[in-house]
Every structure is written in structure tokens, then in C-alpha cells.
Amino acid sequence: MDSFTFSVTIIIIIITAVTSFMAFSNHQLMDKLIFYPPDIAQRKQWYRFFTNGLIHADFGHLAFNMLSLYFFGDLVNDAFTQIFGDSGTTLYLIMYITALAICLIPTYIGNKENYYYRSLGASGAVSAVIFAGILLYPAAPLSFFFIPIQIPGFIFGPLYLIITAYLAKRGGTHINHSAHLWGALYGIAFVIVLSFALQTGFNPITHFIDAVRGYFIN
Q: How far apart are CA 22 and CA 41, in angstroms?
């Protein structure tokens, strides 16, 4: 793992952590950066699609997202470098940044006039990185934070998506499960579309199937 690849993920974590810590004690900064659909719709503050990923509700929220990014970021970045060559790290960064916004489009559409709705955190973008990792390394062991049993990514992924989709439909919590769901799907789509669009010669779908088959054979 080269230092530049490593530093990209670390830089994201540092910027996010510093901004989050600043916003913990600065409500004015929090209000400026948070995802607030009415201000986007009426005042055209589109930047909120991205800046909300720099702030978090509390230290636990921040730590969970940044630890997840730390464990998956370099792995995915390395894979991108192998697949896309010199453009790998740039595409990894583009995926993360665009995921911040893409994952919130359904939320925005459903809450344009909801003056009580706010959302924050990098969970959608982190989900994109995690699920890009699951697509590329489907046999890698993962676990839910409330179930300390590791299962391969190709089992964890569908379970996570089903649970998240259910929670997003049910609502009634302060967690934006919709952003997690759409971020995860975006991470998968990003890898598949770019692999074919850039004619890399790498077929992520075939790779995934072969890796799952190999898991059972071995």
C-alpha cells in the first residue's frame, strides 16, 4: 500500500473529524453545513448535499463512520488502482464525494417542504465505499455491530440492504436509513458502470460470482 493511497482516506477522515469537532460546539456552523431540504429548494444552497457529510451528531456517530471508512477505504482505493490504473485514487475520491449527494436525492425529494427535517453525517458515502468493497471482495468477513459474528460480505451485503430498506420504509427514527441504502447501491453501481464504461477489461459481476463460488469450493 503506497503512502499516497493511504493518505487519501486519512485526509478525508481528518477533514471530517476536525469539522465535526468544530461543529459540536458551534451551532451556527452546524446550521450552515447540515442537510436542510427547504434551504436547498428555496435558497438553492446545493452545497448542503456535500457539507452535511463533514458533520456528525456526536462523537459516537463520527467514530463509527470514520472507523468504517478507515477499515474499508484503503482496501477499495487499492482495488481501484489495480482496476483503473493511475486514475484509481481520483475515481475513489470522486465516488466518495458524489455519494454524499447521490444518497440524499430521495431524501431531498421527499422533504423539500419539511421544515422540521435535517440530516447529517457521512454514512451514505461510507456505505458506498463499504459496498464497493463487498463487490470487489465478497468473501471478506464482516459483522453487524450488534451481532459479533463475522459472515462473508456476499451474505452481509444483502442482509444489510434488506434491513436498511425495511427501516427506511418504516421510518420513525432519527437515522436516515434511506441515505445508507442509496449510498450502498451507488457504490455498487459506480464500480460496475465505470468498469465497463472505461473498458478496463475487468468484469466486476463475473469477479463477484467467481469469488463467491470459490468461497464454497475452498
A: 27
Neighbours of 47 (CB within 10 A): 12
pLDDT in tens, 47-77: 999 999 999 999 999 999 999 999 999 999 9
Q: Which residues of the chain have pLDDT under 70?
A: 1-6, 144-147
Domain count, the chain: 1
Tell me the residue type at 150: Q
Buried b (16+ CB within 10 A) or exposed e, 87-109: ebbebbbebbebbbbbbbeebbe
Q: What is residue 116's predicted lDDT score, i.e. its pLDDT?
A: 93
Could you tell me which of 47, 48, 19 has the C-alpha nearest to residue 118? 48
Q: What is the CATH number of the domain that holds 202?
A: 1.20.1540.10
